[in-house]
Amino acid sequence: MGKVTGFMEYARLEEGYEPVDTRLKNYKEFVIGLNVEQAKQQGARCMDCGTPFCNSGCPVNNIIPDFNDLVYRGGDTDWKHAIAVLHSTNNFPEFTGRICPAPCEAACTLNVNDDAVGIKSIEHAIIDRAWSEGWVQPRPPKAGTGKTVAIVGSGPAGLAAAQQLARVGHAVTVFEKNDRVGGLLRYGIPDFKMEKSHIDRRVAQMEAEGVVFRTGVMVAHLPEGSKVTNWAKDVVTADELMQQFDAVLLAGGAEQSRDLPVPGRDLAGIHFAMEFLPQQNKLNAGDKLKAQLRADGKHVIVIGGGDTGSDCVGTSNRHGAKSVTQFELMAQPPEVEDRPMTWPYWPIKLRTSSSHEEGCEREFAIATKEFVGGEGKDKGKVVGVKTVRVEWTNGKMVEVPGTEQVLKADLVLLAMGFVSPVAAIVDAFGVTKDARGNAKATTDFHGGYRTNVAKVFAAGDMRRGQSLVVWAIREGRQAARSVDEFLMGESELPR
C-alpha cells in the first residue's frame, strides 16, 4: 500500500496530452507521463484494502500494491525494486503502460465510490524511468539446453514466450511474415499511441539474450486474394519447422477481419482497417509505398466503435480528412457506470478516446444497409452509406421504420473486429480448431497450450481469438512454461 491516508488526501492525477492542434501535425506520442513526484503522490493513494482486487483484475496478475508502495517511498533503490516487481509478471510494461485499457483500475477497491488509483500511469512512469536510467539490461542464460523452439508470430504473445524461453537456455527463433518485428504492435497500433522505438529496444535486448528473429518469412501460404497484411519475401513450410525444431509455438495475431457483406461492398473506396493502418506505420518507419490509402480531403466513415475504429479516426484526422464519422451498432452506453453493479469487473460505459477528441462524429445504434456508388466519373466508387437506426429488444436488433438515410462517404473503413487468426497457418500444421476458428488448446497448469499435434503449442490471439495486448503477454508467458516443461520434463518459469 502507499500512504495510510493518501486516498483521502490526494485526488487522482491523469496523464496529460499535448494540444490537439500540435499532435495532429505528426504521428508521435503525445501523452505526457507523470514525473517522479507525481507518480509518488499517485502511489500514495493505494489504500490498505486487504484484498487487492487489482491483482486479479490484471490479466498478467501484476503485483500492483507492491510497486505502488515502492514508488510512494520514492528512493532510487525503491524504484529499482519497483521495476523488478513489475518485470516479474510483465515482460513489456512499456507496451501495456501505453495501450492497455487498464482493467486493473476498474477492479481497484477505491473505484467502488471514488476515482481509482492511476495504476497504468504509475506503470508507465516506472518503465520509462527504468529505461532512461539503464536499469533494463539483457538477461542471457548461464547455459544452453540444446533444445530449439520456433515461434510463429512476433506480436506480444510471441515476444513474451521467446524472452522467457531464451532466458532458460533454449535456442529460440521467431518467424515474422512482415519486414519488422512486432506483429500487430508494429503494424496495427498507430505510432501516436505507441512509437515503435519501444519495440526496437526490446528486440535488441532479446537478441542479446540469444533470440533469433527471421523477418519477411511467411509460414505456410496465404490464400489468393487475402487482405491480411503480408510483406514476406520468403516462405517456410510447417513440415520444415517440425523437422528443424524440438517445439513450435503458434503465436500469430487475429488478423482475419470481420467483413460487412451488404450491397455495394465491392465498390472502390471500402477497405478493412488493417489495410489502412499498417500503411501509415510503414511510411512512418521511412519506407515508401506506391499507392497509400489516404483520407486527405475525404468524408470518412469508420464502421466499428472499438479501439481499431478509434485508431482509424486518429489516423484519418492526421491525414487531413474533411470529416470523420464513426458508427457503432450498439446503443450509446451510459457516461458513468453503475459501480455497485459492475465492480470489480470491466464496466460498460461511454469511452471517449483521444482520437475522438481530435474530431469525430459518433453515431450509435446505427446499421449499414448498403454502400452507395457514384455515377459518371465516380462510377464504381463509393459515394455514400445508406443507414438505418436500430433498437435492441430482448437482445435482438430491430430496425426503426422511417429512419433510413444516406451519409456522404468517399472512404469507408471496416473496423468491426477480427473473426479468427490466419486459418492457413493453423491448417498447415494440422491443428484442430475450435468453433471460432482458433487453435484448440487448454490453459491447464500441466499440458496447457498444447494442440492436438505433438510438440505444437498455441497462445495469444492464435488460441483465444482477438484480445488485449496484456492477455497476449499472459498467454505467451504461460505457454513458455508449458513448452519448457515439455522439453525438459519440468519448469521453473513463472506462470
Automatic annotation (TrEMBL):
It is an enzyme of class 1 (oxidoreductase). Keywords: Amino-acid biosynthesis, Glutamate biosynthesis, Oxidoreductase. Pathway: Amino-acid biosynthesis. Gene3D superfamilies: Alpha-helical ferredoxin, FAD/NAD(P)-binding domain, NAD(P)-binding Rossmann-like Domain. It holds the Pfam family Pyr_redox_2. The keyword rRNA-binding does not apply. InterPro entries: DPD_II (IPR028261), FAD/NAD-bd_sf (IPR036188), FAD/NAD-binding_dom (IPR023753), Glut_synth_ssu1 (IPR006005), Glutamate_Synthase (IPR051394), Helical_ferredxn (IPR009051). Residues 148-476 form the FAD/NAD(P)-binding domain. One of its GO terms (molecular function) is oxidoreductase activity, acting on the CH-NH2 group of donors, NAD or NADP as acceptor. Signal peptide: none annotated. Its EC number is 1.4.1.13. GO terms for biological process: glutamate biosynthetic process. Residues 24-134 form the Dihydroprymidine dehydrogenase domain. NCBIfam families: GOGAT_sm_gam (TIGR01317). PANTHER family: GLUTAMATE SYNTHASE [NADPH] SMALL CHAIN. This is Glutamate synthase.
